[in-house]
Amino acid sequence: MASIKDILIEMKNLSELMVDLAYSAVLFNSKDAANEVLKLENKVNGLNYEIKKQSLVAARSVEDAEKLTALLEIAEAAESIANAAKDLADIVIKGIEPHPVFKMVMEEAEELIVSVSVQSGSELCNKSLGELMLANRTGMFVIAIRRNEDWIYGPDKFTMIREGDALIAKGTEMGSELLKKLANSEIEVDEIADIVDEESQSQFDD
Amino acid sequence: MASIKDILIEMKNLSELMVDLAYSAVLFNSKDAANEVLKLENKVNGLNYEIKKQSLVAARSVEDAEKLTALLEIAEAAESIANAAKDLADIVIKGIEPHPVFKMVMEEAEELIVSVSVQSGSELCNKSLGELMLANRTGMFVIAIRRNEDWIYGPDKFTMIREGDALIAKGTEMGSELLKKLANSEIEVDEIADIVDEESQSQFDD
């Protein structure tokens, strides 16, 4: 079962990353990001095949089979989400320029996606994502990093941020503001809590 | 175009909420949450029909039509994601108990979903989500609130948290810990930054 569990974790993680990457690809008209989505979709297909195979081996009784069926349906759902991400990425691959309305959609949706450029002197430079804990401090999740001509997709806590990186991140409007200011070295990490407090206070006053 | 934009924003928001709600429904074996996903899926279908109709009216030239086609493909992708969420919710509606492995998958995936109960004396009580800015302070996004027998799905910044509420939220492992401690009144909001600093420091030491 360990293997079935690990496959499903990877399918869930990848399908969610793919949706974020696909929206980013359309938003920033990035063929690189779109191609990564296509590559990941192949990977998710392969994992879905693998989990079906493993489930057939694991089923020992009718009851087993029923419970495993639910796991397979979850895997199918992850694959459907991955397919939807691929369809989004295909828009970019086909070279269709996104309608200007799409940019407005992404700016007004609940979860924003932004690209911020890490300037020299920013506190983010030469720190790992794990150390920075950006998600916990700002509500922003880094989806991908563009470094010169290379991309890092789905960075983990060990990924280091370097000067000049473009961070593609998703989160709230306030989080986007905080991340931009951190990347511009307009603010330091230890000022975030006070800024959020002030903003929270102003919500109170309204 | 305003209407097309607004429909697409709603489709994107709803499809993402549906995926989170559907995973929550399976995780907590909640027919209420699953039924909400089914209801929202109907809504997304209706919105997809509406956006197609509006696009036909808006297209004035071949160039227009091409750009609008990309918007419609984005709407289709949102509907596919909504359909995948419906398939997940159907597992719960069919009464299939989730395999114990699924709970482990959700605990080890990158984005966790947790349910935390707001205790009397918690600083969360009688504050709005907007004021609390939980997403920016902890990285946790509240997906739904269970209050007695009622549910609030996709709460907004005006939604008040009350004693006894069960908050269904997604985010990081560290964020889940912070939210649980806030809800248990083990910590106050203004202690979060120091706790995250300490955790960040320990990442440094490793």
TrEMBL record, chains A, B:
Species for this entry? Candidatus Methanobinarius endosymbioticus
Q: Which GO terms describe its biological process?
A: potassium ion transport
Q: Name one Pfam family in it.
A: PhoU
RCK C-terminal domain location: 101-185
Annotated protein name in UniProt: RCK C-terminal domain-containing protein
Q: Which GO terms describe its molecular function?
A: monoatomic cation transmembrane transporter activity
